[in-house]
Write a structure and sequence with these properties.
Layout: H1 8-15, H2 17-28, H3 31-45, H4 56-80, H5 95-99, H6 101-106, H7 109-115, H8 120-131, H9 136-143, H10 147-164, H11 172-188, H12 191-197, E1 198-207, E2 219-220, H13 222-235, E3 240-247, E4 250-257, E5 260-270, E6 273-280
Length: 298
């Protein structure tokens, strides 16, 4: 597309590309699928008569939403056959994403997992309305529902998410402090330090996709999580190291084995302790993390 930089369609698409990617990613939880949706959006956008389009942004969001809904419904079958817990594909994000509190929460692993419990239409309506403040009339066109129906769906989705989302938004500095304590205890083998930084009912979810070893069910409770870590480390052939990074708008950790990436560990922090651990090991979900520039999502 760079050869046609002066083309109005290309300029409009590029101007809104970050927004469109974020809409698709929040609906799908997969950066690879979001990129595919953007390609499909571009192909349809390139055929549009721009003289008939009053609002380029709204039209592009509409196309992206419809393509995301199609893909989301197809992905449902893929997820049902998935081995073990399914976690969103981690996104390496730029520091400015963490500074936008609402955006950082909306792409956090914790909230993305809550969005997985919505129906495809509910998820689309929630993302467009709550994250991007799109009007009900625009959403109605995008999801092929009446504005009145969209209002009802939005209310139902908001109530569902509010009942399951983290109780309060935690600052990046608080998350970073808990992660630093976790990292220090992990690297020094300080079992009591691990128990101290983990909430008593901490939940560990690990995603190996059937390719890498991972727990097939969530592990609940600080002592069980620590035992799993200790048992796992004892079987590792090589040196494990943890490296701070920013993933999905929040502080996280690269986990490396002999310098090569083994996984991404994201966390949910409550009351200065780690209440949720999300460990992505599936190589298919890690292929983009080191090869791409950190993303700005708007």
């Amino acid at each position: 597309m760079s050869d046609h930089a002066t083309d109005p369609a290309t300029e409009a698409f590029i101007a809104h590309r970050n927004l469109l990617f974020t809409v698709a990613y929040e609906m799908l939880g997969s950066a690879a699928d979001a990129e595919d949706v953007l390609q499909e959006t571009w192909l349809r956008w390139a055929e549009v008569d721009l003289a008939q389009v009053r609002d380029h942004r709204a039209y592009l969001v509409r196309i992206t939403t419809r393509q995301s809904l199609n893909r989301l419904r197809a992905m449902k079958r893929r997820k049902e056959a998935y081995v073990g817990p399914w976690l969103p594909e981690p996104l390496l994000t730029a520091p400015d994403v963490a500074q936008d509190v609402e955006l950082a929460e909306s792409v956090s692993m914790a909230l993305m997992l809550v969005l997985e419990t919505l129906s495809p239409t509910e998820r689309a309506v929630f993302v467009l309305r709550e994250v991007f403040d799109v009007g009900y009339d625009e959403i109605a066109v995008a999801v092929d529902k009446s504005p009145a129906a969209v209002r009802q769906i939005a209310h139902r989705a908001r109530r569902h998410v509010d009942a399951r989302r983290p109780r309060k938004v935690v600052s990046p500095s608080e998350t970073r402090a808990a992660l630093e304590s976790f990292q220090r205890a992990f690297e020094t083998g300080d079992l009591q330090g691990l128990l101290d930084v983990l909430a008593p009912e901490v939940v560990l979810m690990s995603d190996g996709g059937g390719v890498k070893h991972a727990a097939l069910r969530p592990v609940v409770g600080a002592e069980k999580v620590v035992r799993m870590f200790v048992g796992g480390i004892g079987k590792v052939q090589g040196k494990l190291t943890l490296e701070p990074t920013l993933v999905n708008g929040n502080p996280a950790l690269f986990v490396r084995l002999d310098g090569e990436i083994d996984g991404i560990m994201a966390v949910r922090v409550e009351d200065a302790r780690v209440a949720g651990l999300y460990y992505v090991r599936n190589p298919e979900k890690l292929s983009r993390v080191e090869s791409e520039t950190p993303l700005t999502l708007r």
